[in-house]
């Protein structure tokens, strides 16, 4: 098997819809996938100052809207000896372009999936993927603030509850995604829901390098 999600799912990866499995099976040396579509985006009001601040690190953002142009680029590679996959999401609002970058890393030694959000991987999160009716469902677990290999655990009251559902619609020949971010104190933070089509592109190492939000990963969070 190749791809960080396949490694985390194990035998359950066989239950994914073939198109969903194809989307998440990128390993080092594979090509790059590019998806394009439209999203409906909502956000809460209590965390607006934090959402504005996160834009400087290519994380979350304060804008909301209907039928927003969306693009997502995905590539697999090795990061400091770990298998990794970068996902770059771009949302084009009227006159404003927002980026949301993440790096998903397979911790082979401890058999866990880790996600680093934003430029520099400011927030690290344990991911718990599962398969439901052919769709990939991913929920967030423990979270840490991360800076140059140092980790500070976030208490539950400060951590974000994240769920992403990614499925493929045979009739429409499109991917459907629903992502929600919430907090026990602040409530709804951000969500986006929509559809996109995806195509594969030839791998260019220079282009993959430009996609990487982190140059290296000297240390993983504690078990």
Structure description:
The chain has 223 residues and is mainly β. It is 12% helix and 53% strand. It has helices spanning 4-9, 18-24, 48-54, 205-211; strands at residues 32-43, 65-79, 82-93, 96-107, 112-117, 123-132, 135-147, 150-153, 161-169, 174-183, 187-201. A 10-stranded antiparallel beta barrel has the order 1-2-3-4-5-6-7-9-10-11. The protein is globular, with a radius of gyration of 16 Å.
State the strand order across the main sheet: 1-2-3-4-5-6-7-9-10-11
Q: Mean pLDDT, rounded to whole units?
A: 95
Radius of gyration from the alpha-carbon trace, in angstroms: 16 Å
N- to C-terminal distance? 24 Å
Total number of β-strand segments? 11
* General shape: globular
Question: Which blocks of ≥5 consecutive residues have pLDDT under 50?
Answer: none
Q: Work out the helicity level.
A: 10-25%
Structural class: mainly beta
| Strand-residue proportion | over 45%
Main sheet, how many strands, which sense, barrel?
A: 10 strands, antiparallel, barrel
SSE order, one letter for each helix or strand: HHEHEEEEEEEEEEH
The total count of helices amounts to 4
Subunit arrangement of the protein:
single chain
